Recover the amino acids of this structure.
């Protein structure tokens, strides 16, 4: 999934396919959103998210460092760690991670906001009823800000040991 303006992965044998990247994003429950923060410093913040069709959805308060950074520069990356197992005998870590690059925008349209919070609610309270979700959403609605990151580029990588294990007969 190389696109113009994004570096190709150095260790191509360890690259995840687009389908593997999306599967990792669907499995994950949190990641780190990186933005252009105050004074030019990177601002990276852990967030819960929902992923669907090349878009990540987040919720946040209506003001703060994150929103200031997004309004200044919507370019962002979001990293999800799908596997992280220390293998001390091999002095390594068996890892799998995905990074999504794109632009974050604040959802202003009421229908888009409602759809985004519904995705998040179904993701994190899958056993709740539609009525239960509606009550929870209504209770927090006035304080909610919903964000969408539209993927421009996605890459994933895993430890060579995991690649070899998948290829082994």
């Amino acid at each position: 999934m190389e696109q113009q303006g994004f570096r190709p992965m150095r260790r191509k044998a360890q690259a995840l396919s687009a389908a593997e990247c999306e599967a990792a994003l669907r499995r994950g429950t949190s990641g780190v959103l990186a933005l252009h923060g105050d004074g030019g410093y990177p601002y990276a913040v852990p967030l819960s998210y929902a992923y669907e069709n090349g878009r990540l959805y987040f919720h946040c308060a209506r003001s703060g460092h994150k929103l200031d950074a997004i309004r200044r520069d919507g370019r962002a990356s979001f990293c999800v760690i799908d596997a992280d197992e220390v293998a001390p005998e091999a002095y390594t870590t068996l890892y799998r991670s995905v990074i999504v690059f794109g632009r974050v925008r604040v959802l202003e349209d009421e229908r888009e906001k409602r759809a985004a919070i519904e995705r998040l609610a179904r993701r994190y309270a899958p056993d709740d009823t539609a009525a239960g979700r509606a009550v929870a959403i209504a209770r927090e609605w006035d304080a909610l800000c919903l964000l969408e990151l539209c993927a421009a580029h996605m890459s994933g990588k895993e430890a060579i040991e995991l690649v070899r294990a998948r290829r082994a007969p």
Notes: Residues 38 and 165 are 43 Å apart (CA to CA).
